[in-house]
Each structure stands twice: as C-alpha cells, then as structure tokens.
Amino acid sequence: MGYFERMICYELEEIVGQENVTDQLADLEVVSTDVCSISRFWIDRGEEPVKPDYVVFPKTTEQVSEVLKLANNYKIPVTPRGGGAGDTCGALPIYGGIVLDMSKMDRVIKVDENNLTVTAETGILQCDLEDAINRKGYTLNFFPASHYCSALGGFLANRGSGTLSSKYGKIENLVVTMEVVLPTGEITHTLPVPDHSTGPELNKLFVGSEGTLGVITNATLKMFYLPEERRFNAFLFKSLPDAIDAGRLVMVNRLGASVIRVYDEIDTKVMVKKVLGIEKEGSFMVIGFDGPTEMVDLQEKLAFKIIKEKGGQDLGREPGNTWWQNRFKFYYPPYNLEAARVVHGVFDTCATFENILTIFYEQKKAIEEGFKEWETTYMGHFSHWYDYGTILYPTFIMHKPPQDVNELLRINHRIWSVGTEIAIRHGGTVNEHHGIGLRLGRFMKENYGPGFVILQRIKKALDPNNIMNPGKMGFEGR
C-alpha cells in the first residue's frame, strides 16, 4: 500500500476509529464474494477474487455521512454491504475502494406499540429484528429464505420478499419512513408516512436502488400482532397448469392466503421429495392462512373448495406444516464435495397469469435443449402471488459443468441471457426480489426501454462522481 492509500486509511480511522477500519487481506477476502454460484465457483477454483482496498465498519449515520464525503472528495468507489447473502454479485467491490460493512449498525431503535411500527438500523440481521419484536408479541410477517444470514439493509436495497408476501407484501410494503445518506454525504429522511399526495414517494426511489443512490441507515417498518392461528395445507395436482390456475383463483377472489407456493413436476420430484419425503408425482402446492381462528376457518373453506374443483388432491396439514418448519432447507445449499461438482443458478421473474407459464415452458425448453452438453436441468416454483400474476423462480443445474473457469462463466452468462430474454419478451421483469446487481445489469435498458434514461439521470444527479456501487444495475462503471 502506497503513501496515498495509507493516508486515506488514516483519514477513515479518524472518522470511525482505528478498530473499525481494516486493510488486512483476510478481511478483504471475506467481502469479496456473495452467494452467487459463479463468484463462489471462481474462488473455489483458485482464481483471484475482486477485493476492496478497505473495509469500514461505521457505527452511526453521521459516520456514514463523513465516509461518503471523504470518498467523494477523492472519488473513491463505495460498496455498501449487509449480510452478503445476495446472489447477483451486487455487493462485490468490482472497482476496489471502500466496502461499507453495516454490521455494527444493528440496533433496534424503537418499538412503537401504539402505531405498530419498529425502527431499526439497517445492519441488523432479519432474524434478530424479528426475534426482538416477537418477544413483545409482534411480527413483521417477513420471512425471506435468507432470514438467518441477511440484513435489513440488504432486503431494502434489493426490494426483497418473504414467504408470506402474498398477504403482507414485499419489504417496500412494510416501509413507513427511512433515513438515507446521499452519495454526497447529506443525511435525509423520507416523509413520516408513505401514503400521501405530496409529490413522488421517495421510499420507492431508494428501496430497490441497491446502494447506487445512497446508504439507507435506518428504517421504520410496519408490525403486526402475532397471529392466533397460522395454518398450512398441502395439495397435489396432476399438472402444473392446474395448480397455477387454482392459485390464480384464490388470489383474484382475494381470500387472503398468506402463502401459495407451487412446485413444478420436476421440483416436486427433486426438492419436495428430498426435504419433505413426499414420493408422489405431480405438482405440489402449499397454501397457508393466518389470523383469528374464525377467519382462517372461513378462508380455508372457500380456498379449499376452489383448489379441489381444479383437481387438487388434499394431502392434509402434516406436509404443509412440515414444509413451513423446513422451508429454509430449500434455500441453504449443501456445501460439500458433492455440491461442488455441480453449478446451479436461480433467476426469478414476475409476470401476469396470462404469460407466466409461457415463460416457464420456453425457458425450460431453451435451457435443457440448448445446454444439454453439460447435462443441464431446469425446474421451478411459483412463490409470491399477486392478484394480477405470480413470480416464477426457476433453478438450472449443470451436472457436468466445464472445469475451466472462463468457459464456465461464458456458459453461465449465456444461460442467464437466454432465460432473461425469454422473460422480457413475454412481459416479465428482469428480476422480482433478488435484485439486479452486476449479473443482470445488461438487461435493464431492454426491460425499461426509454424509461431507463430517467434512472440514469437520477443517478447522475444524486451521485455526480459515480462513487456508489458503480457498475451495478446497468449504470456506468468507472
């Protein structure tokens, strides 16, 4: 490290304290990856990871502000980081500079039992935030798959979603107000309530911006009472289209399902059998309701009638409850030698009911036939539902991937291009709740069309020196 770099390190130490700045190789390598299979594969094969020059651990919003002012002065790139559990390479410091590790800003600031809100710093792990309010009888009803390893800031930055989103919405639906440090260091607050006729809603600007427009340092979220009842039931359909149509009817009739999760026939055979031990073939559905007992009784009665009329075979509560209790096992990968031999990826999209199955079947055909040389399989589930459509969450697995890292990256890139372009062509989004990051940025102009110019101009206005997570979300690099 040269004199200039050492001087920057000393200035950072003056802001956050010597103990909260590191340039040690081991610390730099910790923040050089996320859970993206490609970034893991790159490092596991002995390739050199991208590394920052410094990792900084702020403890206050004011410290974040001063760090960004310093970075602007020297035009040093800054990459905010939460739990590091993203899978789009969004938190990778591809231009070096500063990784702003938010893990020491992890306080629950206030639990407001009158307005049913909780205010917390964004470095807090989601599981810790949920536990803190559970002890007082409340819940966020926000249970993402990475519940135990992701931070609140990561969900806000990537517009994340949880298992119960079909009833309670995604993370942006929980936000009341936020504190944000702009790229130039100003500390700002969005309006105290999100429902107003007072100009554009700034919460919507920063939620989903992936650290490119500033750093969200704390947020006030809606809470709910812990439900009297929380029930789950499983059904099996002969075909995926029947299961999708049953879910559609439950949603458009607004029966208040907190969970609808449908697995295609292959996902049922592979994942559902592995986790739940269910041997039957078909398309597996889990549906859940929560709230007062009398309400849940009525909702289930009406929904089950629809499901059975569409051919759903009632498997009972036991597999539904088992699914809920084991739902995180569908997420956490088996980091063992067997798993290291394959390469997998996920890419989710959201589309209307009219288009979602077209996207699914076209992706499946294109990926399995186009990449059969590497014994690639494709399967999917549909996990977050709206009254207009649902999300397709497909997984592709290369059972015999090439061992050459460059060739692997090239093939992986092609698979993502094929799958994403099919989604866009049929009215789907580039992504639904994992974010864009580095991996999907090239599709933003295609998905937004001329509207992407609006985002580019906002980025330029707020971040004139392009220090905040450059090269992500399709914005220009350095």
UniProtKB/TrEMBL annotation:
Q: Does the keyword Flavoprotein apply?
A: yes
Residues annotated as coiled-coil are none
Q: Name one Pfam family in it.
A: FAD-oxidase_C
Q: So which cofactors does this thing need?
A: FAD
UniProt xrefs under PANTHER family: ALKYLDIHYDROXYACETONEPHOSPHATE SYNTHASE, PEROXISOMAL
Using the record's annotation, list all stretches that form the FAD-binding PCMH-type domain. Answer: 48-226
Provide the protein name. Answer: Alkylglycerone-phosphate synthase
Q: Which InterPro entries match?
A: Alkyl-DHAP_Synthase, FAD-bd_oxidored_4_C, FAD-bd_PCMH, FAD-bd_PCMH-like_sf, FAD-bd_PCMH_sub1, FAD-bd_PCMH_sub2, FAD-linked_Oxase-like_C, Oxid_FAD_bind_N
Q: Where does FAD bind?
A: E210, G211, T212, L213, G214, V215, I216
Active site at which residues? Y393 (proton donor/acceptor)
Tell me the GO BP annotations in alphabetical order: lipid biosynthetic process
Keywords from the named record: FAD, Flavoprotein
Q: Where is this site: Important for enzyme activity?
A: R261
Q: Which domain of life is it from?
A: Bacteria
Q: Which GO terms describe its molecular function?
A: alkylglycerone-phosphate synthase activity; FAD binding
- Which family does the similarity line name? Belongs to the FAD-binding oxidoreductase/transferase type 4 family.
